[in-house]
Here is the input.
Amino acid sequence: MKKSLFLLPCVFVLCIPSLHAQYLTGRVLDRTQEPVAYATIYITELQQGVVANASGVFELAAPAGSYQLVVTCMGYQTTRLSWASEPKTEGSLKTIILEEAAYQIAPVYVTANREDPAYTIMRKAIGMAPYYRNIVESYTAEVYLKGTMQVTKLRGMAYLALNREQRAAIRDLSSIQESVSEIQFTAPDKYVQTIKSEKTAANVDLKKLGMGENDIQMGLANLNIYSNRPNMPLASNAFQNYAFKYLGDSEIDGQWVAKIQVTPRRKANDLFTGYLFIVREKWCVQSLDLSLSQQYIKAGAQQIYRFVSDDILLPVSYSIRGEWDGLGLGANGQFSGSIKYTDVRQNQRIARVAPTGSEPIQQAQNLLDKQELTQRDMRELRRIQDQAVAAVREEERRERDEKPSLEVVNNYRIVKDSLRLQQDSAYWALMRPAPLNFRELELFTISDSIKAAPYTPEGKRRKNIEIAKGVLGSGYTFTPDSLWRISYSGMINPFESSYNTVDGWVYGQALRLRRETKNNGYIQLRGRASWAFCRQSLMWNVLAEQRYWANRRGHWGLGAYAQTLDFAGDQGVGLVNEWSSLFFRINPARFYEGRGIQATHRIDIANGLVWNLGFKWEDRRPLDNHSDYSFFYVDSRSFAPNIPDNSPYVSDNPALVGPNRAAVIRMGISYTPKRYYRMHEGRKIMLSSDYPTFSAEWTKGIPGLWDSQSQFDFVSASVSQSKNFGYHRTIEYRAQAGTFHRAKLLHFADFHHIYTNQSGVSLSRDLNTFQLLQTYRLSTPRWYVQAHVRYQTPYLALKYIPIFTNPMIREGIQFSYLLQPNLRHYTELGYSMNIIMFNVGVFAGFEQAKYHRWGFRLSLPLELLVRGLRL
Here is the structure.
């Protein structure tokens, strides 16, 4: 969260001019002599756009001579004028007056039907979007970017998440950053950004926030209006998400430009509102003014496009604004700058739609010539353009002899010049296209004084206090060097303490030693010790593990332990038991004491093919409740005994939860065909696949090994997939079956356990959950078949009611099925609403098509979060 204060979600690319002795300077005003903030000035001869500052002032270094300036701002008429460069001198600035824009309805374009003329215009623009998205083969751009950010509010959750020093640093934080870069683009999506110079200033010491100057960088995050992402106004599905309105035409640079109002058809997090300006005849974007409003973020972007050649339009200026107001933190940012293109090359293979040429091109031109374009016509036009681009890209791949690969390459690379931080104030004064205001200059002065301050005994004392607070409080991490990390949980860490009726209150301490190895690997030793106050017992575990052979994701672990364990293992209720016991005096979990050793190993045999191997020897001992404590219901409820409610097995054979020694080996394999992956610093990171994941596992109890009383074979198999399609719609499914063989000696901990949500509140949104079944009741030593399907979409039922139109809400339906010896053909149907992290739903259960029960359920995916906060 700390770094995100400097990297608000709307950081975009801008540019810098070359170094010259003379300047093009001026001030842009309206008819009332008020400044026109962030107006765009495009210099035709230089093919460069600059953005004026909030006072309408611009200042661009340029060789001596006369230049044609095109001055543009949303809501004003475009003005063209000649402007001579001259040496920078003190005195009044020459003024440019912009008139308010006047739009007129073009009678020739009025449609015969009742449909708004905007739809024909947008259909042609959408049909041509693939062409304009791919027409550029390569370019080089000189980039200047200035970003400012200011914190306006700090309270609530954000306040509590910071220590006292951080609160003081961030409460009135203001910052500014400038950067000078060169961007090299190669189609279709490869970027290399070389940061030649950058400068950051803040009114506080960034080190207090755990940051350095290298942690803050502004890169290319361009709003590609021609992208086919589902939320873009020129995407192929745009008419499902947006309504368009024609507001008139204006003549700009000898071309008629239509102003189109863009309005979302429904409330959604990532749908834009604003205006598009479409060049007629060419059907491309001349400029845009779009904004979006999410739960905590409001952001907007203005872009001005210009023809840098006869057929290539590229953005020449940006003005970006953003606001964050949520979780107790308020901040706003403004980003502006300019861009100059050099060496722009057109992809000559992507033929321009023209009256002459091949039959598909002629067909596309005929569609564009139609006065009214239908949806069917638009789809055909888009198909022709998509096929032409796909054919060119395939031809290029063949020429490069490029083999198909599942590796997703990061096509955006940042290179930092070693001298980028050493430019002086004279250099920046020369490079800025607009002068800094008083507050911005003051920030650089304050920042320089902070950096020049010597390291004093007071600073050392504050560092020692910080370490002491971490050790005595909620934890601290020591970093002796770049390879070693020593983490201690702290003496008062709430996430290392717990409660259950077997142990009572548990107080724990944890320590971790980690050393980084080659290729993003590591080797580490973790240890935890805790004391169960009511049971008067010491619990502990140690684990040594290593991540090796990073491109095969190799990992091994070896550990020993003596601790309280849930009979259901990972399928247990987890933290819900602690909270349910303390607040409602209901203890759904059942425990035993396990002492043993374990070893695990995992590696990728091939891409998408994962092999797992594990061994465990465990001495299991039964436990009784030792605590009767709870916050409430002390006189009205009693805790249940620590015996699993499992009939007929446990009730008929109590030895299943008695003393037991077990040696178990587990072997599993899973395969996901054609799974994409990414390499990061030599480490392989698995991504998605268009195919399901197939898994199989064999577990065997080995009798006699170190007095093992375990003899069984268990085989299971599953198929699962999560797939996105359409606009924020996902479908997930998982089918699984398993059976025991030669189950002669078996402990209840070795049963197959069904994952349930008996308490009504779950800290996981695992797809395998049965919402209405009781924990342990259906654990089985025989066989089972189960399946789950979940479908989620932004709009399903209740979202059409006005009070539920919050864009953060997604709706879903879920189906679950279970078949096993003690429950025949059980099904669950459910409807749920997902609101940020919360998921609330209503479910109904049926046994052999007969109604069983219903209930409300709440899911909070906090289990992994709490585990992550534990050392």
